[in-house]
Amino acid sequence: MSDIHFLLPLVLILVTARVVGRVSRYLGMPGVLGELLAGLLLGPSLLGWVKADSLIEAVAGIGVLLLMFIAGLETDPVQLRRAGRAAVGTAMAGVMLPFVGGLGVGRLLGLDGAGTLFLGAVLTATSVSVSVQTLYELGHLRSRVGAVVLGAAVLDDVLAILVLSLVLAMAGQSGSVWVTLGRMALFFPVAIGLGRLGLRPLLRWADGHLGREAGFALILAVVLFYAWSAEAWGGLAAITGAYVAGVLMARLPEARHWIAQGAGMVGYGVFVPVFFVAVGLSTDLGALGAASWATVGLVVVAVLTKWVGGGLGARLGGCTWREAGAIGAGMVARGEVALVMAGLGRSSGLLTEASFAVVVLMTLATTLLTPLCLRLVLPRRGESPEGGVVRLQVAE
């Protein structure tokens, strides 16, 4: 093994991600925030010790696919139905208003038509983990506010992924949008049909003949195939295929637990932290330059459009004004999905270096502001409405 130059950077990435992530959680912030800051610390913005080369980007690419696969595993249609029309209204308004706001900011940043659409798509995302953790700490996770936020966040992420895929497809096609839409429309029923017919017998066979370890390797192969086919055949983003694979496997209760356990260990143990650190490594704060004013503008637009849009949607769905204000605040954080989108926009050339840095800083700011916003509108209580202490394990 002669070429070992990549080992020390990976050591620095993994160790720094864990240390800074632990400090972030100790301070009451999500671990993902610490991993982003670790990338900024190691990258060109500060120390300049690590460069995001092709190997790190490849590992990060696996990380983002695993992240979206795990998000699919966590999607609960039953929970979404329980939230009812309030969750649907929150999600719909919380997607449309930020999308329009992103179009306006994109124009001010001087992006072209595709870049402006892409920025609007980025602002539609919502981070489930940040809101769940904050609601848990405040004792409101099992309240009506918690149910609506969770249900709306699930639908919000689905809509955001679809909007992202559509924007990427339109940007990649010069005059064949209808062909692209046709490929997208065909991919979903084929992928879902094959998954429903083949996944259950495949998993049973793997569990009985291969064992859990080899069976999980087969699961990863299925996820990677879905990711590849989504982009190669469906004209969608690869993350959409990974997400669909997760949703399909979430319907298999006999195997979902060990799949989620394995994906969490492999993903959150190695690949996902590398992805978030790589986002920080790819961010050069010096590239902001004269666009620093745009960061403040984008943060203001990101916070207000989600808070107002989500709150109005919840109010129209039957919530009180107080509940609607809390629900809107719970939808503010962009988190993981926005970072995934930003990375895709940068790699595809839809976002400039300065715009990418602005989006990353917006994501950091909304992640920090969401717990503060929720604490402003929700009183802390130690017990759930059922009278017991709320206990939930939130994936790091």
CATH architecture: Up-down Bundle
Distance between the termini: 34 Å
> Which percent band covers the strand fraction?
under 5%
Identify the overall geometry: globular
Poorly predicted runs of 5 or more residues? 382-396
Tell me about the largest β-sheet: none
Kindly state the number of beta strands.
Answer: 0
CATH fold naming: Na+/H+ antiporter like fold
What is the mean predicted local confidence, pLDDT? 79
CATH top level class name: Mainly Alpha
By DSSP (H or I, 4+ residues per run), the number of helices equals 15
Short description:
This protein is 77% helix and 0% strand. By secondary structure, it is mostly helical.
Structure write-up:
This protein has 396 residues and is an all-alpha fold. The chain has one domain (12-377): Na+/H+ antiporter like fold (Up-down Bundle), CATH 1.20.1530. Helices cover 77% and strands 0% of the residues. The protein has 15 helices and no strands.
